[in-house]
Design brief:
Nucleotidyltransferase, domain 5; about 300 residues; alpha/beta; 12 strands; binds zinc ion
Length: about 300
């Protein structure tokens, strides 16, 4: 059997045809261009699916989309303005009507987590917190290999766990969210705040400064590993995971912060919190697509 896995990201949509062992038969991608609106995005999604189906048929479709997803209905429960008008979209029904193939939909970060649990770093574990550190901070939490979804499809929004009650304003409306301290964006923004000027505009530039021995960059990274370790200790107390899997753009720079993070978890955790295993994600960009394909196979077993 073959499934189509599709990952709708902010900048591109990637899709692939995947077999039951997770081998990618074929993959395609298109620019998301979300700013063009809902109708355009749906059309974009259809074109990508048509392209994939042009040479091979598939038994099911799985989609990982940004936003909070009602996985029973396959609808978008809530999406931020990054995907304009996406809230309320009946994604599953739309694809079933168009292609006549069973379709499953989930959140993109959940799909990436499912990809890691299926074929990646989480393969052998049952209780796992997958953390994605990139432009923002996102997560998927698994207990006994089941994803924790929450009553409003909003569980695992770890990036919006408050670390500093009177801290920095977050784009979610709260103050002091973890995302404002532990993301790639946070690193260069904090650096600029301390310098009092717009010195760097990307994580890449920030790490170049760190590499060159810049004292302020060192200070910012120290605060980052502190905050990350503190957040992970809290997550240990809440979920008691067997393992953390860390992915996202920041994992490319893990040599700068990994050891400090581990050392600080040990320093801040009480004795009852056993030191968790922390692993880097196996897949860089394909976890979401593979996880979406897994959702599609799972949908078939339900039918
Ligand atoms: Zn927030």
């Amino acid at each position: 059997m073959l499934a189509i896995g599709i990952d709708i990201g902010g900048t591109k949509i990637v899709g692939g045809i995947v077999d039951e062992q997770g081998n990618m038969i074929r993959s395609v991608e298109r620019a998301t261009e979300a700013e063009k609106g809902k109708a355009y995005l749906l059309e974009n999604l259809e074109r990508l699916t048509e392209e994939l189906l042009a040479e091979t048929s598939a038994d099911a479709i799985g989609i990982g989309s940004a936003g909070r997803i009602d996985v029973h209905e396959g609808t978008v429960y809530y999406a931020t303005p990054n995907l304009p008008d996406w809230t309320g979209v009946r994604l599953k029904q739309h694809m079933v009507d168009r292609f006549g193939i069973p379709t499953a939909v989930d959140n993109d970060v959940n799909a990436a987590g499912i990809g890691e649990m299926w074929l990646g770093a989480g393969k052998r574990y049952s209780s796992v917190v997958c953390l994605t550190l990139g432009t923002g901070v996102a997560a998927a939490v698994f207990v006994n290999r089941e994803i924790v979804r929450g009553h409003h499809w909003s569980a695992g929004e770890i990036g919006h766990m408050i670390l500093y009650p009177k801290g920095k304003r977050c784009n979610c409306g709260q103050w002091g969210c973890m995302e404002q301290y532990c993301s790639g964006t946070a690193l260069f923004k904090t650096y600029n705040e301390i310098c009092g000027k717009h010195a760097v505009s990307s994580g890449k530039q920030f790490f170049a400064l760190l590499q060159s021995g810049d004292g302020i960059a060192r200070q910012v990274l120290d605060a980052f590993t502190d905050d990350l370790a503190i957040a992970m200790v809290s997550l240990c107390n809440i979920y008691d995971p067997e393992v953390f899997i860390i992915g996202g753009g920041l994992i490319e720079t893990q040599s700068y912060w990994w050891d400090a993070m581990l050392e600080k978890i040990g320093r801040y955790a009480n004795e009852a919190v056993r030191r968790p295993v922390v692993l880097p994600a196996r897949f860089k960009n394909q976890a979401g697509l593979l996880g979406a394909a897994k959702l599609a196979f799972d949908e078939l077993t339900k039918q």
